[in-house]
Amino acid sequence: MLSRILNLMKSGTSYSVQQLAEHLHTTPEIIQSSIEYLERLGYIKKIKVLPTCSQSCKNCHGCAQTLSKMPGMWECIQ
């Protein structure tokens, strides 16, 4: 399963944990723990995705709230 997750990540297509679980016929919990394991082994790393604000900054803190709600994103290292 780990190699299948890595191959999907290398494909260049973005998947949510739920989409990976459906594609691999398993649960989101198993996908999440597999991703965490791959990260600990150094095969993938979590990346930061910055939200874009459509308003000029008025210190509303909307971007910070949006960022906290964004799903995790990872990229393959090897």
Write up this protein.
The chain contains 4 helices and 2 strands; from the N terminus they run αααβαβ. It has 78 residues and is mainly alpha-helical. The chain has a two-stranded antiparallel sheet. The longest helix is centred in the middle third of the chain and has 14 residues, at 28-41.
Helices and strands in order:
Elements: H1 2-10, H2 17-23, H3 28-41, E1 44-47, H4 62-69, E2 73-76
Helix pairs in contact: 2-3
Keyphrases for this structure?
78 residues; 4 helices; 2 strands; 10% strand
Oligomer: single chain
Rg of Cα set: 15 Å
Q: Strand-residue fraction?
A: 5-15%
Number of contiguous helices: 4
Mean pLDDT equals 80
Read across the widest sheet, the strand sequence of neighbours is: 1-2
- Strand/helix succession: HHHEHE
Pick out the low-confidence regions. Answer: none
Class by alpha and beta content: mainly alpha
The counted number of beta strands is 2
What fraction, in percent, of the residue positions are helical?
Answer: 40-55%
The profile of the biggest β sheet is: 2 strands, antiparallel
Q: How far apart lie the N and C ends?
A: 17 Å
Q: Rough shape?
A: globular
